[in-house]
Design a protein that fits this description.
With 237 residues, the protein is mainly α. It has one domain (16-193). Helices cover 59% and strands 8% of the residues. It has eight helices and two strands; from the N terminus they run H-H-H-H-H-E-E-H-H-H. It has helices at residues 8-15, 22-54, 58-80, 98-115, 126-129, 156-191, 195-203, 215-222; strands spanning 130-139, 142-151. It has a two-stranded antiparallel sheet. A hairpin with a 2-residue loop joins strand 1 and strand 2 (142-151). Helix 1 runs antiparallel to helix 2 and helix 2 runs antiparallel to helix 6. The chain is elongated, with a radius of gyration of 23 Å. The two termini are 30 Å apart. The relative contact order is 0.16. Residues 227-237 have low confidence and may be disordered.
Length: 237
């Protein structure tokens, strides 16, 4: 059986400095970025599913709810912000309805003013996530300061909004993958016979045995399993 794989991400890095091959590097980066955004959305979706499971158990909700909630919010924000350093983002909100855009803004506010940074929340979720007060109290004439904090680990409305946003954002990414994949294939068809590209492809061979821990994982790679999201069988970096 004849089979080979090329690390296109490495190939793009090698040829991007060659002016006549810049279109190939750009096509690879754009396609890779769409996959990367998709991976964030898939991980966010899986986190939401896990969050809903732990919510049914009070002990698990107390221990894991806030961490899972924060993780899902951050992953969605990574995927939904188009102007991203290091990847050619997909404008997943472009086709959102007015209602979805309002939900998106509420999640963005939660991320920006509560989860990732401290600010003054304006959205419906941010105002409910964390309440804190500095208190002056007096007991038998003795005054002292204290601090009161109440932090939500699970907001059902925010979880429902996230699930809906992830679903619609996923549709936008799927369309971007199709469009960018067609353009990348056209560039590869045009330039694969180029001697410099051919040599670079040989240098950029991808060996799955170096990335996956078991023979089953390697077989899944060759047999067409979609590894668009992080695979739990991969070796640690």
């Amino acid at each position: 059986m004849s089979r080979w794989a090329c690390d296109l991400t490495q190939l793009a890095a090698e040829v991007r400095g060659v002016k006549r091959l810049k279109s190939l590097a750009d096509a690879i980066y754009r396609f890779h970025s769409a996959f990367s955004v998709r991976a964030d959305l898939m991980e966010a979706r899986n986190t939401i599913r896990m969050l809903r499971q732990v919510h049914t158990n009070a002990s698990d909700r107390s221990r894991f709810g806030a961490a899972l909630m924060s993780h899902a919010i951050v992953l969605y924000a990574r995927a939904a912000i188009s102007d991203q350093e290091g990847r050619r983002g997909v404008d997943v909100t472009k086709a959102f309805s007015a209602d979805l855009k309002n939900k998106h803004l509420a999640i963005a506010d939660l991320r920006n003013t509560v989860v990732a940074h401290h600010g003054i929340p304006q959205g419906k979720h941010g105002r409910r996530w964390h309440k804190e007060r500095t208190i002056l109290k007096s007991v038998n004439g003795s005054q002292s300061f204290t601090y009161s904090s109440s932090r939500s680990g699970y907001l059902a409305a925010a979880v429902d909004d996230l699930a809906l946003l992830i679903e619609h954002a996923g549709s936008a990414v799927a369309a971007a993958l199709e469009e960018r994949g067609i353009k990348l294939q056209a560039q590869l068809s045009k330039l694969m016979a180029d001697p410099e590209v051919s040599v670079a492809v040989q240098r950029c061979q991808y060996i799955p045995e170096n990335s996956y821990q078991t023979s089953d994982d390697v077989a899944s790679f060759w047999n067409g399993i979609d590894y668009a999201t992080e695979h739990l069988g991969q070796k640690p970096l």
